[in-house]
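Good morning,

Attaching, inline, the backbone tokens for the sequence recovery test we're adding to the shared suite. The designed sequence is right after.
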């Protein structure tokens, strides 16, 4: 399971994208009721806050204390530190269980058991994620040539599960049809580099070698940016998997 220190959690909280608003409305329509939802591996609460707009109570948990400590408080969100695979939640507690961009870090055999225990019969499980980023031909080329080669030996095996959009995961229930959702951000060069800094491979590389590779890449990316003084659209290919658990 990936963990964070205080500094990386603060960067994560400021730079990670907010998920599509349409996703949460769709979840509210699919859940058997809008009573209680578990945001499992909540990180710094990106999904928790938006879920609170549609559900009466959000239980949000993460194994990383620094992530939970960096989360934004909300009167309907109860944050706590704990693993995804073993919780103190009562049996059949939740109408909906969500895992945002984190399922690839779990011990899935144990998590599926816990999911069946805490989810109400007929309750909904939904996970989602994104892989890579797409800006423009020139910008993508610069990132591929000046950043990715440094990271090639630092990607954990779990990242490859994410890159394949969880198609290699055997879900213990039938997957349902899900609408297409888009995840688009409007970022500056600095925001884009901060986002790259939060990648698991970037964090591992920086721990060993420092962040000079990102500092060296910044002026090159600025030269390739269509307008270095303005933000531009950044697309994050987005996917959702969902199913009901009986």
């Amino acid at each position: 399971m990936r963990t964070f220190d205080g500094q990386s959690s603060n960067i994560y909280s400021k730079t990670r994208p907010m998920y599509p608003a349409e996703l949460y409305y769709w979840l509210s329509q699919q859940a058997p009721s809008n009573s209680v939802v578990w945001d499992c591996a909540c990180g710094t609460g990106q999904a928790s806050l938006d879920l609170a707009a549609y559900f009466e109570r959000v239980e949000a948990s993460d194994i990383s204390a620094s992530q939970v400590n960096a989360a934004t408080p909300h009167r309907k969100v109860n944050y706590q530190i704990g693993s995804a695979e073993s919780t103190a939640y009562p049996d059949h507690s939740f109408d909906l269980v969500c895992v945002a961009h984190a399922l690839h870090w779990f011990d899935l055999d144990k998590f599926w058991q816990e999911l069946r225990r805490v989810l109400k019969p007929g309750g909904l499980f939904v996970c989602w994620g994104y892989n890579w980023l797409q800006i423009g031909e020139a910008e993508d080329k610069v990132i591929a040539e000046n950043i990715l080669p440094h990271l090639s030996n630092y990607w954990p095996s779990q990242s490859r599960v994410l890159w394949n959009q969880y198609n290699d995961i055997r879900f213990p229930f039938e997957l349902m049809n899900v609408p297409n959702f888009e995840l688009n951000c409007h970022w500056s060069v600095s925001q884009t580099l901060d986002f790259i800094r939060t990648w698991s491979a970037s964090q591992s590389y920086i721990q060993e070698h420092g962040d000079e590779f990102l500092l060296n890449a910044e002026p090159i990316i600025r030269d390739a940016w269509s307008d270095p003084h303005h933000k531009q659209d950044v697309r994050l290919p987005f996917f959702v998997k969902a199913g009901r658990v009986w």
